[in-house]
């Protein structure tokens, strides 16, 4: 050990370069995998913001497998508020939110703008985990009654009212007038829909506004204990009963979408991590190179050690220790740099959660140490095989 | 103690058998002072390597303390070297990046002596060889004579029964060479067997027993 330390110290620059090689390899693995992992937790986080245990029911049997949607032949029945209410009676389903989306000019005071209008029921708050900044959400009542009330998104509130009071004021939506009963807390964009830039009205009010009775989709929240397959079968059965035996809806499981994304991104992360791992193998070859040079430079030292009674095994251990020590220093500094880099990345892009995967740390450190050991083995064996007489006579 | 019986060593060179040693018979008792002399290429270093167990003979038997050590495995021979023999070389063979004290310490490290005990023994050795203020110096900061004293300290730290010196003065000036020889002879008087290879007759003649080698054979032994 003493000798190994001494050897590394006395060849400062050469050892530094080797250490640097390992260090870059390890930190690259850490950085890239944590980047991938951050992206993964970002995406899954975004999805769960949409609501966990959520099932989306769409009208029509448009499979999401691509291909051309059926234009002729199949005429999907519309989903109606009554369909939604029927689903809501199932014991497996804890909350429902029928959804209508359209856009209409919205005005207050002298300001007017085209805004997305969502027609739904009080169930929406549960399903989408909506938070209110002030006032109340839509109250539970008969969804067929078109109450003239609305809930405003934060962005829209700012644009229409600025610092003025908005709660209790009248808002003109299309040709109707609604009282503002609540303002949503700012939540940011989540998967394409900016809830901050919307106005939410009771579903019957939306039906009047858009002169239509068909729903855009129905959002369902299911109990955590429900089996997804059973739930899906039950949904299909209920709708089928109401649609004269036609199975004409598409069901999307939020969780399965999340799981798929999760899997794809995990594979991607492992992939880029492995690519970074190649640089570790390169670093290993660098270690071997350095150690071979070291062996041939220290031939007479090896000869001396053999002469004064060091068994071959001890010489082998000495050089192995040196290689492992080099890769250990490299690994530790690489881990440090990797973590610092991850923290820096988090500072620069706060959206991405800071997540250095444990498996990546273990894999990187393990690979680095292993390459040190494997690539250190050949020079060490060569050193141990040197003939002491020949080694000593080399001057 | 050391007993060589019909030791031969042949080398293969360009498809030709080269006999470096031929049928050497040599008995060395404990506490003897022997010089091995001969012109260069006569085989005296080869003989020393045989005695030192650094090389294996082509044929013949080597008995050490009555035990046949000829065919022992490498690691066993290494252990014998560590415990029974000290080496002094022409070029000192100190490890350049270690201090004088650390160089002396190596054999103790190799045999697994506890670190506190090691420090004590090294300090004692440095004192008895007059190197006490040189302990942290590295070999390139030491004079040739000091280097050789460090090497002798290293050779004797394990208290070996035999000291093997290969041209110990070959790389030193006359005065320092004389000091080194005095030191070695002093150790011999304390009971260590001293075997010295040299081509310098002035040094070789000092030994109580002089072995001359010519063409791989002992030509005189007196």
Overview of this protein structure:
The complex is a heterodimer of chains A (395) and B (222). Chain A is elongated. The mean pLDDT of chain A is 80. Helix content of chain A is 54%, strand content 18%. In chain A, helix 8 packs across helix 10, helix 8 runs parallel beside helix 11 and helix 10 packs antiparallel against helix 11. In chain A, 41% of the residues are buried. Chain A starts with a helix and ends with a helix. Chain A has 2 domains: 171 residues, no CATH class; 171 residues, no CATH class. Chain A has a 6-stranded mixed β-barrel. Chain A has a two-stranded antiparallel sheet with strand order 8-9. Chain A is α+β, with helices and mostly antiparallel strands. By secondary structure, chain B is α/β, with parallel strands linked by helices. Chain B has a single domain, classed as Rossmann fold, CATH 3.40.50. Chain B is 35% helix and 29% strand. Chain B has 7 helices and 10 strands. A 6-stranded mixed β-sheet of chain B has the order 6-7-8-3-9-10, with helices on both faces. Chain B has a 4-stranded antiparallel β-sheet with strand order 2-1-4-5, with helices on one face. In chain B, a hairpin with a 2-residue loop joins strand 1 and strand 2. Chain B is globular and about 50 Å long. Chain B starts with a strand and ends with a strand. Chains A and B meet through helix 1, helix 9, helix 10 and helix 12 of A and helix 2, strand 6 and helix 3 of B.
């Amino acid at each position: 050990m003493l000798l190994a330390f001494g050897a590394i110290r006395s060849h400062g620059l050469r050892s530094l370069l080797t250490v640097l090689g390992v260090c870059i390899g390890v930190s690259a693995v850490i950085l890239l995998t944590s980047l991938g992992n951050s992206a993964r937790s970002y995406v899954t986080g975004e999805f769960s913001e949409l609501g966990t245990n959520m099932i989306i029911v769409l009208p029509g049997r448009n499979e999401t497998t691509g291909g051309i949607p059926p234009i002729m032949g199949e005429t999907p029945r519309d989903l109606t508020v009554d369909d939604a209410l029927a689903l809501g009676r199932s014991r497996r389903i804890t909350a429902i939110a029928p959804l209508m989306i359209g856009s209409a000019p919205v005005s207050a005071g002298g300001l007017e703008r085209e805004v997305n209008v969502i027609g739904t029921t009080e169930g929406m708050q549960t399903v989408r985990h909506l938070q209110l900044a002030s006032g109340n959400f839509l109250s539970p009542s008969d969804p067929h009654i078109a109450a003239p009330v609305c809930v405003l998104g934060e962005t829209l509130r700012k644009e229409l009212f600025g610092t003025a009071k908005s709660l209790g004021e009248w808002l003109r939506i299309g040709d109707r007038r609604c009282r503002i009963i609540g303002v949503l807390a700012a939540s940011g964009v989540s998967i394409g829909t900016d809830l901050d830039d919307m106005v939410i009205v009771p579903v019957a009010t939306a039906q009047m506004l858009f002169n239509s009775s068909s729903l855009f989709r129905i959002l369902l929240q299911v109990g955590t204990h429900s089996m997804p397959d059973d739930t899906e079968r039950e949904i299909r059965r209920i709708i089928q009963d109401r649609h004269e035996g036609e199975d004409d809806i598409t069901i999307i499981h939020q969780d399965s979408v999340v799981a798929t994304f999760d899997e794809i991104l995990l594979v991607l992360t492992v992939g880029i991590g492995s690519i970074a791992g190649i640089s570790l193998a390169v670093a290993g070859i660098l270690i071997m190179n350095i150690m071979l040079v070291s062996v041939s430079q220290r031939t007479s030292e090896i000869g001396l050690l053999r002469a004064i009674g060091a068994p071959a095994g001890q010489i082998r251990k000495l050089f192995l220790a040196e290689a492992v020590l080099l890769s250990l220093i490299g690994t530790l500094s690489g881990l440090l740099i990797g973590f610092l880099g991850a923290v820096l990345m988090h500072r620069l892009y706060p959206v991405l959660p800071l997540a250095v995967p444990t498996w990546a740390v273990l894999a990187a450190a393990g690979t680095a140490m292993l390459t040190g050991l494997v690539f250190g083995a050949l020079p060490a064996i060569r050193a141990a095989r040197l003939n002491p007489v020949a080694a000593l006579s080399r001057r | 103690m050391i007993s060589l019986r019909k030791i031969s060593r042949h080398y293969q060179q360009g498809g030709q058998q080269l006999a470096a040693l031929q049928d050497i018979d040599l008995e060395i008792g404990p506490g003897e002072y022997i010089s091995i002399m001969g012109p260069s290429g006569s085989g005296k270093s080869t003989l020393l390597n045989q005695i030192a167990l650094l090389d294996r003979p082509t044929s013949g038997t080597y008995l050490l303390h009555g035990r046949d050590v000829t065919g022992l495995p490498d690691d066993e021979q290494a252990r014998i070297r560590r415990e029974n023999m000290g080496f002094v070389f022409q070029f000192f063979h100190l490890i350049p990046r270690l201090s004088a004290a650390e160089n002396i310490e190596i054999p103790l490290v190799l045999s697994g002596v506890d670190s506190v005990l090691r420090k004590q023994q090294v300090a004692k050795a440095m004192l008895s060889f007059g190197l006490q203020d040189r302990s942290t110096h590295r070999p390139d900061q030491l004079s040739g004579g000091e280097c050789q004293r460090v090497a002798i300290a290293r050779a004797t730290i394990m208290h070996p029964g035999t000291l093997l010196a290969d041209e110990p003065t070959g790389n030193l000036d006359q005065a320092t060479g004389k000091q080194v020889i005095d030191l070695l002879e002093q150790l011999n008087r304390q009971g260590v067997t001293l075997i010295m290879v040299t081509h310098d007759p002035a040094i070789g003649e000092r030994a109580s027993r002089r072995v001359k080698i010519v063409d791989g054979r002992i030509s005189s032994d007196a």
